């Protein structure tokens, strides 16, 4: 019997379709921004760095002044489809860790792309016509870099241009709602770096600043916990801010990149572990869980960096800190709600609503500025003991015909008024 060799090599078309099919367009562009952010952070001086995106109907461009990347990085990492583990080059505390981001985005956008990098020792350029690349020898997966001279005074950075965009990409780029939501997503995803001075501009317009804020005063504080587990530093900050259903919840950050915003599901423990389901009365709560690791593959995020991996051992360890942080704040918010009801029943004067006043009178500050040292006690005012109830409620059901007859006799316009009048009648004649 003759042994027959089966060709199990993937085709380029199949590989590219699998690479690009499961990530939305907006999220894939974030991968390119991740690379620029990593370069900006690696430079050690982020406040003079800029990332520019041009999103047009026929062209996409992104360029930065963040230092570029060298030829070795390009050939061994950036443009390789998979690599030996011995070739892995880790950028400490990076966010662009999965190695597929740039390639995936370029192939998702269009049929032609150009990448130019200007770095400290030189420069190179790579031009790819995707159709030509697909049609060349099926075993030849390589790209061709052209080494270039670095001009005096030339800005060190990465310059990417994609043309011959796919129809689906053009359709989204021409949609004003897509651009509006994308700008918001960029502002939130990179809020820490933008607040540190990094500038991101989309079609010439600077992305707005976003921050997570809490209320702080001498009477109202926040919780700040720290720990480390398997090489990952974990910090948990929590407090209260103005009541806002859509802004309340947990924010989860990995190496400076926000991966979960205002998380309000069981993913961040709401409705589990004796923590109630998120609802409007708890919409004062703000919490940030932050993970920092030199080796970013240790971080508890998904491969698209748009969610937390709830099965991660690191994240499950962080859950313990999250519970410690949220429990005293939930107690405070529950007592605030009881205080509100007691004031409505005239059992508390308005000036005795100390919990509510502590929120209203506190200053709004960034959650990162609120505490710079570990604080495991939630500072808050004590709740005033309410007066005994001055009124009570009686509730019972009676036959509707009998009720209507009584209403006619006593001249009541409602069931509650009839009940009050009949109670007064009974009290006057039987109890006086």
Could you please describe the fold and organization of this structure?
The structure is a single chain. The chain is of the alpha+beta class. The protein folds into 3 domains: 12-206, Heat Shock Protein 90, CATH 3.30.565.10; 213-370, Ribosomal Protein S5, domain 2, CATH 3.30.230; 400-431, no CATH class. 34% of the residues lie in helices and 22% in strands. The chain has 13 helices and 15 strands. It has an 8-stranded mixed sheet. A hairpin with a 2-residue loop joins β3 (110-119) and β4. α2 packs across α4 and α12 (400-410) crosses α13 (415-431). The longest helix has 32 residues, at 313-344. It is elongated, with a radius of gyration of 30 Å.
Task: Please describe the topology of this protein.
Elements lengths: L11 H9 L4 H18 L7 E6 L3 E6 L6 H8 L22 H9 E10 L2 E8 H6 L9 E4 L8 E9 L1 H7 L2 H14 L1 H5 L3 E4 L2 E2 L6 E4 L6 E7 L2 E9 L8 E6 L2 E7 L21 E8 L20 H32 L9 H8 L1 E4 H4 L29 H11 L4 H17 L1
Parallel strand pairs: 1-7, 12-14
Antiparallel strand pairs: 1-2, 2-6, 3-4, 3-6, 4-5, 7-8, 9-15, 10-11, 11-14, 12-13
Helix pairs in contact: 2-4, 12-13
Short description:
This protein has 432 residues and is of the alpha+beta class.
């Amino acid at each position: 019997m003759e042994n027959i060799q089966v060709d199990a090599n993937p085709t380029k078309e199949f590989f590219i379709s699998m690479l690009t099919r499961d990530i939305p367009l907006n999220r894939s562009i974030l991968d390119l921004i991740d690379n620029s952010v990593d370069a900006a952070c690696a430079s050690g001086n982020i406040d003079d760095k800029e990332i520019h995106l041009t999103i047009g109907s026929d062209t996409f461009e992104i360029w930065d002044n963040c230092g570029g990347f060298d030829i070795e990085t390009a050939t061994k990492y950036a443009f390789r489809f998979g690599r030996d583990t011995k070739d892995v080059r880790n950028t400490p505390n990076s966010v662009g860790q999965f190695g597929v981001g740039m390639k995936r985005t370029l192939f998702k956008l269009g049929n032609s792309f150009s990448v130019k990098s200007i770095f400290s020792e030189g420069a190179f350029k790579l031009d790819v016509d995707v159709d030509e690349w697909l049609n060349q020898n099926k075993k030849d997966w390589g790209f061709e870099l052209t080494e270039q001279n670095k001009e005096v005074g030339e800005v060190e950075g990465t310059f990417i241009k994609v043309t011959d965009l796919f129809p689906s990409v053009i359709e989204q780029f021409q949609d004003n709602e897509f651009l509006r939501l994308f700008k918001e997503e960029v502002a939130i995803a990179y809020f820490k770096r933008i607040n540190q001075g990094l500038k991101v501009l989309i079609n010439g317009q600077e992305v707005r600043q976003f921050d997570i804020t809490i209320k702080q005063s001498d009477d109202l504080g926040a919780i700040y916990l720290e720990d480390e587990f398997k090489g990952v530093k974990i910090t948990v900050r929590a407090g209260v801010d103005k009541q806002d259903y859509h802004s309340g919840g947990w924010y989860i950050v990995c190496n400076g990149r926000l991966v979960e915003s205002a998380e309000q599901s069981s993913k961040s423990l709401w409705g589990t572990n004796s923590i109630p389901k998120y609802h409007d009365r708890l919409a004062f709560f703000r919490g940030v869980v932050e993970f920092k690791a030199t080796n970013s593959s240790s971080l508890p995020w998904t491969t698209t960096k748009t969610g937390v991996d709830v099965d991660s051992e690191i994240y499950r360890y962080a859950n313990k800190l999250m519970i410690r942080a949220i429990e005293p704040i939930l107690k405070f918010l529950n007592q605030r709600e009881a205080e509100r009801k007691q004031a409505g029943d005239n059992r508390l004067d308005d000036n005795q609503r100390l919990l509510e006043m502590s929120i209203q009178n506190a200053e709004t500050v960034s959650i990162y500025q609120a505490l710079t040292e570990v604080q495991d006690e939630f500072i808050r005012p004590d709740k005033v003991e309410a007066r005994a109830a001055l009124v009570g409620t009686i509730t019972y059901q009676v036959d509707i015909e009998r009720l209507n007859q009584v209403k006619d006799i006593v001249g009541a316009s409602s069931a509650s008024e009839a009940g009050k009048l009949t109670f007064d009648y009974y009290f006057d004649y039987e109890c006086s």
